[in-house]
Amino acid sequence: MGGSGFCPMKKLLLPFLLVLSLPVFADEFREQLIFDINEYNKKVPQDLGDYRIESVALINNTILYTMKIQTVKRSEFGDREISLLQQRIFNMGCTNPTTKSTIDAGYTYEYKYFDKDSKYLVSIPVTSADCENI
Question: Whole-prediction pTM value?
Fold first, then answer.
């Protein structure tokens, strides 16, 4: 073996090291996510005009926002309103660099909405598949 500099072991080792480092990155990412969610929950409930964030939780790989629409009753919230809200959530989740990078890392955002009387309205998940068309 002359001095060509070719080392088959080096070429085999590099992808192996990259694969090994992915879980470490994923663990650090998850730890940061948990920290951020815990910090955020210190500030809730948080009013955002007609909306109110009640809580944020990480359940498996889903970041769950529990929301209240403070100006709507369940009887006033139909398919049209659900569609408009879903479109808004997809656009926001898929175009915001922070949420998009979290989705790309394998997480799902889910927004669970309740009316002003705390009655369930709709749950809207945002996944990487949802972002493909936006």
Answer: 0.78
